[in-house]
Amino acid sequence: MKIYTRTGDAGTTGVIGGRVDKDDVRVEAYGTVDELKCFVGQSIGFLDKDKFEDLLEDLLEIQHELFDCGSDLALLKQELRPYKVKAEMIDHLEALIDKYDAELPDITKFILPGGSLAASTLHVCRTVCRRAERRVVTLARTQPINEEVRRYLNRLSDLFFTIARVANSRNGLEDVSYARSADVFRRK
Question: CA triplet 60, 172, 47: central angle to 5 degrees?
Answer without folding.
Answer: 20
